[in-house]
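Researcher: Next entry in the queue.
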Amino acid sequence: MTEWIQQTLSILLPFIGTALGAVILYLCYQAITYLKQKGLEEQVVEALRQAVDHTQEQYVDWWKDASEDGKLSKEERQQALGIAKQTALRLLDGPARDMAYTWTTEKIDSIIRRILDAKQKAEPIVIEERYEISDIDNPDPAVEAPAPISDESTIATANGE
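Model: Structure for this entry, 161 residues:
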């Protein structure tokens, strides 16, 4: 009986090892794919944030100043949204741009709304509740910047002279 078990194991062991190796390779491939996709999503969101900032500075503020009530009309809001989308696509290239083209209009509009809401509230942007992208335009007010060096004696001391 033990001879039979030993013979069976000696025959099956290479197959089990090969199968286990294939499973490990597949799991590694899935992990790498997930991390790449996450990085691409972050690139697209960052491009959208930059595009929203650009559109705000170049168009929206001017349109608000030109309007009588200081607000955008529905057409102007739609136009600003289109400008932001096109600007984001121009900022992207390669796989990140390809990913942006696969996103639905609703998803992109939702991300832009979240970006605008976060800018108004100065909160981090949360996309699909999977990861957070800090709003770098609004740094933590609790962290103070170092005082600038003003006179030459301080600079000489700092340089070890």
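Model: Residues 129-161 have pLDDT under 50 and may be disordered.
Researcher: Noted, moving on.
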